[in-house]
Fold these 4 entries.
Entry 1:
Amino acid sequence: MKTTRADPQPADFTDVRATNLAVVLRHLRANGPSSRASIAASTGLNKATVSSLTGTLIEQRLLRETGLSGNRIGRPGTALALDGSAYAAIGLQIAADRLTALAVDFAGDQLLLWHRQFSTGPADPTGAGPADPTGAGAGDPTGSGVADLTGAAAGSGRAISAVAALAQRAATRVRQHGRQVLGLTVAVPGLVSDGGTVSLSPALGWTDVDLRALLTGSLRQPGLDVAVANHAGLAAVAELRHGGHQAQSDLAYVTGAAGIEAGIVADGRLLHGSRGLTGQIGRFSLGPAGSPTLADLAGIDKLVRRALPGFDPAALTDLTPAVEQVATEARSGDPAVLAALRDTGCHLGQGLALLTNLVNPEVIVLGDHYATLAEWILPAAEAELSRNTLAPAAGGARLVPSALGLHAAALGGAVAHLDRIDTGALPAAP
Amino acid sequence: MKTTRADPQPADFTDVRATNLAVVLRHLRANGPSSRASIAASTGLNKATVSSLTGTLIEQRLLRETGLSGNRIGRPGTALALDGSAYAAIGLQIAADRLTALAVDFAGDQLLLWHRQFSTGPADPTGAGPADPTGAGAGDPTGSGVADLTGAAAGSGRAISAVAALAQRAATRVRQHGRQVLGLTVAVPGLVSDGGTVSLSPALGWTDVDLRALLTGSLRQPGLDVAVANHAGLAAVAELRHGGHQAQSDLAYVTGAAGIEAGIVADGRLLHGSRGLTGQIGRFSLGPAGSPTLADLAGIDKLVRRALPGFDPAALTDLTPAVEQVATEARSGDPAVLAALRDTGCHLGQGLALLTNLVNPEVIVLGDHYATLAEWILPAAEAELSRNTLAPAAGGARLVPSALGLHAAALGGAVAHLDRIDTGALPAAP
């Protein structure tokens, strides 16, 4: 008989030590620099154990000593802090209109943030657009030592070359900063299966693209852990660690770019489902075939089309300037634009009520362009969320704009690798 | 700074032993009687550890020796099996039309299953109806040593007296069977907050009924662990353990009685949300205020009204005879009844697609009356589920009828207490 994934595994003393290493690391991440005595007092671990654990962590360059502790427990002791100088991880975010690369070190400091224009469709066979305003490096996108791609689905090959080139460049830069690159996660809108295949991404126009295998083959860096995951789930992970929601264990992040998806954290863990195919709230619809979906009713592209009727639809591959124009006109009080925003908020609130009735989050973070427009969308969304949730006051769910901007998923992609260390799984020596 | 609930707790050797006790118990529950050598070989624990662990479990009367092992590993050894003779737990299920009490022992054997007619509304001030066809005991529902209820919300007091009386009688019977009662969980439709208060149950007409406190006060059994939880969640727990879905870690159970709710198991754990207020799929609706909800479109009561137009709506407090008549007429090929069933299946499939797009379950179990009518509802529901899920083939989700009948939630209420032992938290001595 097959046993379930939830079955406990036999425990041994390695697990005890890993658990206790995790306790020390998470204590320091939550509370900042602390003395050994203060760690012992707060965690319930005895002082000898704390000394042994912190010794290991200093040796592995995950902690460093940093002057005298300001803690008031016992004599002033040397304070310990997370050490970001040895390890970092990279997140790459693919959107229909641009690529983002971001690297953070183990202490949470950002080492780089690069954007480049991008087009996934076969309409732009060069893969990467000519503009590279951030200085991430221009030129042949298949350069930088990246091998030719074979086996990529038609139309996605050159796009993937651009992703690989940017990944390669980011990894090189992080190493120039003296950090070992622990891993790289690519954030993709749409359905990503467990093995890292993009089974379906309507926003990118991709079907069954084995992105993980293609990237791994292209990068030719045997030690590098390459992963691919849904962007909403990664953004939710980033919100938990860097978005001011460290205290939450039940959180949903809602993307508001091309398509609407949700990343759901339940009881502190990302909701994965049986195959990783979760969070498709944009597909919400009830009624006969052809009934409008939530994405039809509350999508950012629909909002832009309604609020800016003169806007050239062909210009909508990059939504950012259009969203900024909507915000400008809302600020000047344009009644038609304000009505379109209110309408988007109403429908979004109804969709979030479905999610809230089902998973009862404590906080729902509005991401991407919804965050930019939150001032006008939130009031209507909150009212409809509350009105359509069976539990009073939306079951306690608060609706807040993301503070992480348009690259939350890239940050989550990097954080995913560093979070693993916080569970006590220390990195192997380089 | 508040730390998150997901933070690891320091590990000590007690945790190691609890984890390993859990490994042994779950191995035996999944695989049936096994020798010590076979347990060691299958779990990776060494033989001395297995001897020590099973010694403790035999002493606690959670395991018993049972003749020779049929396992083929090494010499024939004495086989060990789960011992049900010492401990049991009780589940009570409250529906609008009846109460169910069920007890199972630690080995999974059912000790009792009682039903009694029941009415929650103030329209029936005696609380319990006169009929008690199963011999669970008739007479004054506040008898059996149950104290008077004070502080119950208007209209629910006598109903709760009936619940307390049945609980008291079930506990007495289980003790007559020689088992220690580890706990009692009451399954309720609607929103149940973490403390055991029924905040809102449209099906029962209850608002803010502190059922746990009222029952605990009424039963006056200080050692008895009394809990209250949503019926769909408890039914999902029962399906996982007794419904033939032991291998699944991502399962949804859908109630089909008065109202539609879902119990969701994600990665082996019941989805709890921030306050336990999950699973309200019957409220799904998109569109202007007053748009029909999933319960309006696919509810069993709506099906009965449509399929049996001559049926007296006043008779619908107990849906079972009506559902049986629908099945009879469907079997005889009545086209109007078949159309109503197909229509219910279509709408249910659309609602389950919303759930599937969001949480990607491996199996969706149709409970209660949906299970009775599955033969006619399932084909349309499967087609719509597949058509409305973004992932191909509904993301792998299979739609199956429950094999646990109308008392899955009562079973789950009992199982919840016994599951705790399987995590290595052994019961205290009586």
Entry 2:
Amino acid sequence: MLNRVRSAVAHLVSSGGAPPPRPKSPDQPNATSAVPAAPSEAPKSPPAKAGGGSVAPAKTAEARASFSRPTFLQLSPGGLRRADDHAGRAVQSPPDTGRRLPWSTGYAEVINAGKSRHNEDQACCEVVYVEGRRSVTGAPKEPSPGQGLRFYYWGLFDGHAGGGAAEMASRLLHRHIREQLKDLVEILQDPSPPPLCLPSTPGTPGSSDPSHLVAPQSCWSSQKEVTHESLVVGAIENAFQLMDEQMARERRGHQVEGGCCALVVVYLLGKVYVANAGDSRAIIVRNGEIIPMSQEFTPETERQRLQLLGFLKPELLGGEFTHLEFPRRVQPKELGQRMLYRDQNMTGWAYKKIELEDLRFPLVCGEGKKARVMATIGVTRGLGDHNLKVCSSSLPIKPFLSCFPEVRVYDLTQYEHCPDDVLVLGTDGLWDVTSDCEVAATVDRVLSTYEPNDPSRYTALAQALVLGARGTPRDRGWRLPNNKLGSGDDISVFIIPLGGPGSYS
Amino acid sequence: MLNRVRSAVAHLVSSGGAPPPRPKSPDQPNATSAVPAAPSEAPKSPPAKAGGGSVAPAKTAEARASFSRPTFLQLSPGGLRRADDHAGRAVQSPPDTGRRLPWSTGYAEVINAGKSRHNEDQACCEVVYVEGRRSVTGAPKEPSPGQGLRFYYWGLFDGHAGGGAAEMASRLLHRHIREQLKDLVEILQDPSPPPLCLPSTPGTPGSSDPSHLVAPQSCWSSQKEVTHESLVVGAIENAFQLMDEQMARERRGHQVEGGCCALVVVYLLGKVYVANAGDSRAIIVRNGEIIPMSQEFTPETERQRLQLLGFLKPELLGGEFTHLEFPRRVQPKELGQRMLYRDQNMTGWAYKKIELEDLRFPLVCGEGKKARVMATIGVTRGLGDHNLKVCSSSLPIKPFLSCFPEVRVYDLTQYEHCPDDVLVLGTDGLWDVTSDCEVAATVDRVLSTYEPNDPSRYTALAQALVLGARGTPRDRGWRLPNNKLGSGDDISVFIIPLGGPGSYS
């Protein structure tokens, strides 16, 4: 997320030192009542280094020790050092030997060109088993593995202002999703429509009687039908919120610094759920056709939401900002002149007479990768950022950021997929320099050079995409074949085959 | 807007009598500083009669006298009576003799089957000349007709809870648009990008010096480029707001009762602007292909905006409503049980434990045509409704309703249109019983029976669409050929030819 949180990082790192030591929480994979707290090894981000240059900053042994990469990369200490090297920017993938990722998923990543000390992207790929918490009918129920649910899970987390939030989300978000799904294990496997109302206390006498389920008749003339699919969407949405709340609770003492975008895929019962909060992107490439599976959430795409919040809650602007947008900064000498503006209701522009309060800094300003909320942050959704303040101010930015993802659903059973049909997930390091069409062309080019049943083809594709976005060192920078600058940002890519050798039956 | 404002109407009409007489404002077609106020003949809506039946309510001579239809229909007193007859429901169009509508536009309408005393739809079709108010460079300027702008204008206004708002909007909204465009006459005709800042006082000494225009350089590193198109969009958006504010000012003494959806088309300098606030709809049918030019704004499509407002401003809910949505009404005996819900951030559903405040009535409830805000109104954007209160309560609904349209732009110059390519505008009376595809099929069927250069073909098409949605009286109701109920609502349709005999050069 190059250039996006420069000033925020500068502010944050100037306000605190290294995190105090804290007892490590035990990992609790089977905990049912709560998701484990963050361990102490969350790294502290050093001052950011802006720009896409090739010079690697000096690293201390201490910093290196707190650096972590996804466990599925199975990095040796030497491998970890190479993955952390800004000068070489070696592309990392899971080893060809050893256990493959589920579904023969391909993965590749590369560290940034020096904008932050470590790679602030994190990734997770898991098969998660969900044990039902209770019977729908309220009957007490013994854990019964055969009746649980399994979901496949992929997550990309693009950190900013430190790596802590991304690291925590990569360890815990899927467990929050599992927690949310526990109530739904029976309901999702029952073909009848979900019950609108459930009894309050499982296991109370008589509650196994299905008549305890409230009948559909009611004081309304009608009732909405709720689909199984929308329950999974709701579970993922609430999991994001609970993950964010956990970060808020544990942020004190800088246990969780910074924030992160989150792009998550859940495969459950024949459907692919793509949840996105931030500026990562997912597309499906199917028979050469591109199907967008996410949208980016930035100050530009969310301008009206941000302006509406500033308008309805002016106290959040602290007298320092105006909720109006102007095409450039208004200058004091322009008082009384008329300038173009947009408010929360407008998509077009109109002229207004400049008044004193229009001289305040605009809540939303800038364009493209330089667009900012409160002159500080360039993404508007994600997890964390609870400590984030406006530069040189105590004004919190978090109220304007949303932790809620947009969730899109793709039904895998509605189409006969071939081995070349893939879901591509990438952080903005990929998409800043690569169009959807270029990705589709690379998918075609790389996969056609491998046998359809060669499981290594998806990793090769992920590597090709990361290499293509990174470029090669030349003329004092990382450059693409067309001599434009490659991405100096962290780049991470998942390739999920939709009909390939990975079996998802 | 059948069934949508039943209770609202019942409440409103029970709260007041006939409007007090008020001096008629002179029409001011050339006024430059303000849009004329509403005249006194705004009709007062009688109690609504629900359902799509065929029985016409009794009418008094008084009520008939205050009834108005678009002037371009050129209705005689006898014609006006026939247009106002719920039993016959004769389809009305401009006469074949006499002056045609601009662009050979086709139009047809029919009154409802008895749900309100008069037809609460209104329509307007005008060519509007905009005289520049000032020079961009600030130089004093004599009115110079040659340098003005001409725009073509079509408007459909679907009234509810009375006909006053729709009638007022049909007379005045295009004048508000003209006022907004006056500042832009020179700018829109200058191919260079619009100036971001204008001098404050036209005609002051020295202000003809172009150096008074603020140069693009500034304290920001960049500035947004604003297009001519977005200025027109902004002008239309602000015109809607000013129209709504005028209704608010003049609502006292019941000068303007009720509210209305507004669907407006502006053709200016090669582009078609379609602005929609409410549940009317516009589609282009081009070479058989359907291009949607609007979306509907209803409690369902705007659920999250409404819930967010209720969440951020709970005082607007008056302790009577909850911003949460439930799939059906929660019953007191269900306290402590868990029910499905959605909040302002969710698109999916999840279970929550029912608490006391969840027993309040939901801000948004119901489905499809029965969806309601605060149990009262079924559309969420439009003009007027400043007197609208929640049934049996003093809680105002207006803060939840938005007067801002969504504006879509279609560039007429980007495609060679044939005489069968049309823009279809219809109130919900058409779309409730007719799909986009059925409309496209009717376009093909009707236009192919006329010579391409026969200007009456578009009126014939509008009539066919209205007749097809109305049906014929049979089995105690208006029925379609498939024996389903036709629309008992007011139905109004414009057909705007995009490449037909109407010249728009």
Entry 3:
Amino acid sequence: MASVFETPQFEAFVKYGALSLAKMLNMSLLTGVVRMAKGSFANKEDYTSSGRLSPDELKAKLATPDPFLERIRRCHLNDMENIPPFILTGLFFVLAANPTLDSCNWHFRIFLASRILHSICYILALPQPSRLLCFTVGFVTTCSMLLRAIAAVW
Amino acid sequence: MASVFETPQFEAFVKYGALSLAKMLNMSLLTGVVRMAKGSFANKEDYTSSGRLSPDELKAKLATPDPFLERIRRCHLNDMENIPPFILTGLFFVLAANPTLDSCNWHFRIFLASRILHSICYILALPQPSRLLCFTVGFVTTCSMLLRAIAAVW
Amino acid sequence: MASVFETPQFEAFVKYGALSLAKMLNMSLLTGVVRMAKGSFANKEDYTSSGRLSPDELKAKLATPDPFLERIRRCHLNDMENIPPFILTGLFFVLAANPTLDSCNWHFRIFLASRILHSICYILALPQPSRLLCFTVGFVTTCSMLLRAIAAVW
């Protein structure tokens, strides 16, 4: 008897789930790099390690975060809103909805591509509706898997 | 030999886990709808797509987000703090703590109901302690499952 | 045939995954306690329950959140960015990468310790690079598991 974990569907789930997480973890790295480059931090102790500032300069710096950094933070938050739900949905989909390998692969690939393109649109501030379109494609993909999983156990 | 995925406990987990995710994903939709209705966005490129503003108007709009939108954002963030941990806890609970079907069903139903009521209290700004009560019920439900799972593997 | 859920690796995963979630859920409790202690809330209805304020006082309170509370909120957000991805990565690692029990235990223990120390550094505002170091150790641990999982299914 083959375990569910040895099916190609589950293998595809692990592959694309892990790649989505890797994409999301990269946002933490990017935030760190941009914080260093811009010299813009959220905590007072982060400043004193890299050069002394007067109390007034420190207060001003903390009160006005860099706009580009805020953009990256929002992009990261959008990943946090979408990628963990996608992976949990994917788990339900693979374990409960008995999907074909093609169905798994295309759901997972379209989601991952939509999130990568979403981040590119967000970070480069590309004109709308490019970002909205990327978001929608990923969101609909997750909903499609979620509805299949709910239908399977109803 | 029946796989763990064919138990009614696991089926209940998939059903209520998927419904909780659907509830959380709806917050993204609601945010989008309210942003359109209020004409309040977080990024400069989101404004230029829907009508031209002078640079000063744009700056003012970006600096003062709509209070109702901020409320929905906090409500969504509260879901993000609670719903993915609930699902991961539920997975540990079902796989490790060997719960009865009744125990599963009631934990999952109470949690889901508490989160739906929490959002209603939050969005309608109902007087406290209504929202606090809803939050606490969901939080205690998650803790109860988490403690059972920890006890089972200790 | 032993199920994957009866392996000591999976048991270690449930134990440390559940402890990480418990650590993260504690941040919600801490936020609540500090909100009460500081009398600093994010919503107008939270104030009217605990004492009447004039509209101007209320507006001022809502506009200037307590700095210590903001610090706890950022600390909680950092947990949300790192702990659910760790658990999902741990699931992929245990199910797909066929790790030894020692490898599991050490990855999980180091991650959990790094997150607890990270929160201590954050909340007490310890001088940098203490917090950066804790973050990096946990982040690298997650990446190590993620790369092993991706390599296993490639």
Entry 4:
Amino acid sequence: MSSGLTSCPGSRTPLQRFRSERSTLNAGWLAASQSSGPAGPAANGRPPLRAGPRRLALSVRSQRRRERIGAGSFQWAARARRGANERAGGGASAAAAGGCEERLVAAAAAATGCGRRRAAMAAAEAGGDDGRCVRLSAERAQALLADVDTLLFDCDGVLWRGETAVPGAPEALTALRARGKRLGFITNNSSKTRQAYAEKLRRLGFGGPAGPGAGAEVFGTAYCTALYLRQRLAGAPAPKAYVLGGEALAAELEAVGVACVGVGPEPLQGEGPRSWLDAPLEPDVRAVVVGFDPHFSYMKLIKAVRYLQQPGCLLVGTNMDNRLPLENGRFIAGTGCLVRAVEMAAQRQADIIGKPSRFIFDCVSQEYGINPERTVMVGDRLDTDILLGVTCGLRTILTLTGVSTLRDVKSNQESDCMSKKKMVPDFYVDSIADLLPALQG
Amino acid sequence: MSSGLTSCPGSRTPLQRFRSERSTLNAGWLAASQSSGPAGPAANGRPPLRAGPRRLALSVRSQRRRERIGAGSFQWAARARRGANERAGGGASAAAAGGCEERLVAAAAAATGCGRRRAAMAAAEAGGDDGRCVRLSAERAQALLADVDTLLFDCDGVLWRGETAVPGAPEALTALRARGKRLGFITNNSSKTRQAYAEKLRRLGFGGPAGPGAGAEVFGTAYCTALYLRQRLAGAPAPKAYVLGGEALAAELEAVGVACVGVGPEPLQGEGPRSWLDAPLEPDVRAVVVGFDPHFSYMKLIKAVRYLQQPGCLLVGTNMDNRLPLENGRFIAGTGCLVRAVEMAAQRQADIIGKPSRFIFDCVSQEYGINPERTVMVGDRLDTDILLGVTCGLRTILTLTGVSTLRDVKSNQESDCMSKKKMVPDFYVDSIADLLPALQG
């Protein structure tokens, strides 16, 4: 009965929202993992996720990791930072090495409440400095890279902007591959398939497998939404999804056996509200999936809510990004704006697939067998890439070629909001090209 | 930079949001009132709001009332309730008169925190019972009506559902008019002009002035948004508004001299994000107005945000209703869903005109010279109609012919959330036809 002014989605804090998404997705994911049986569902010839004992073991390990992280995610990051700082000659000298570090460390020292507790824990574990958001110098990069075997990269704003590669970025990734590092690409963008991303990576010089294995390094929200639906809709005969999104999202869903309806323009039909509600609905629609949809319309919003009133119909959002940055500071509205509209009309919270929901990391973890202590997350957004990395116990590098700035970092360090406190990276670089000297040395 | 997960609109509590809207609008309204000068702007022949000394006096009185209400809105309601309860034979007997009252009073007594404080104040001021949400029996209605001279009604769900009048409602309003009561109609619906509402009122038998004065009793969000823009854009040469809304909203804006662009369908132009952003913008757009827009589209969302990036461009939402109820429990998505999408993409809070923002009450107050102690708000929604009435110190009647139920009332009474505690009416009726016996006696 309530209007948006009293609707739950509208009034949740970021942390509440994040927690609710995470718990929803983990519950769904683990439950489904365990129910999928030893063989797991084979979907249209796509190899199933690792099934049976290994799969369950992974799930359980991932569950234990979650519990540890839930109980004190700090330990992971602290151990990672301690290692890095020791090799970097100690956090104190690192902090003293540059003006920005001094500002950031000062800000950290000035932080109140949980900030002070965190600083105290850091001092205890990392030798007198919490080492948060230190410029990743060449020597620190060498120390860090010696300590990790997997690097996960966001794409837009990190590897490229639009169709232009960040200068030096392809060379940096080529050098990382030459050093035997495993690379993964985690993107909230739902408008490309794994294969399309793999082609773009190769086209812009970032390498990666071609042929049948193309896309194996790519974890986009279109693909991961398909994994989620395959789990949640397991057992449903010929399930369908009403998709607010593009062809790529539909292609990934159909690859796991979920038929898609609603893709493309949906103009207003009829003369008024009653006739809008008389527009026919497809049978067997088990989920409404909201991705990036440039054809989003009021008619689609109404239809989505009508499907969501049917018993058991899932509401899934690929991500909650409010904006999609383009070149020169321009941007377009992001998928999150569309998810919010549907959530408010349906008075339901969507299950969110993309960063910072840890479901997308669980997808990588399932396929890569990740050890968080030896994994780095590199991204340009504090509220998605860095928050995901911190929450999952990864080391984190912010690159300044995209959305977030050092001012944003400082603001988060000074914030009293727990969820913002988590959005502070271990290191930052002007560009991932800054990794090159460490790799060429 | 933040995604929806950390955006302010998404994380505000209902009370924070309501306060921010109220303060924004009152500030704008009063500032503009005082700046409009003794004559006030005459807009396209429409008589200006009462201008000069009286207008300022009203504004100041309304400001003082706001301060009193802000400091302790309870006193207003308590006085009103005390009067009603004395005439109703005391709240205790009223509370004992019916099962529902007993449940609700018990719930109130069981309420914790501020609930207990409120109950204690009520006990002190109203003679042992807070008298909240008592069925409005014929004798209580007689007592109440003897004590008031103005009744403000919501329309959809109170007077009619769709095109069908609530049985007995026209007769009740006719009887109220015959008793010399002043009636006003306050609706969040932005899809009709004042005149169109006046015609519907007469067509369904609710009477009201015809001819030149038609619509003088109607305060819809299309009209009140026009009043707001006339104030906020005073002095802007030939201002324009980008309108996500229908012809009625545009007509009201143009009647106060604000030219409207964007009404009607706006299909996707171009092949991709860059070409979408290349679509030309109109010059001199000073405000983006989001109302009920069945032609809402992604292209409109992008354009709205581009206008909002221009210095000084206002963002105004007609209301935040999440749903627009139709007959038989059916509904369509409300304006609030569209406002939320724009707010999230623009990373700005909209100024909200409609209930429960008190701006719409100030519009009535300016034109009617309202005495809150002698005014009743009658509505079917706790989160808009009743919250507005309580906040403005009016007596409140919930009618059960629309959205909210007694279960919702109980839930609000039992809630620990201050903003929900305010969403409890003084009285309830099954239908406003229940007023008839008191009027015919």
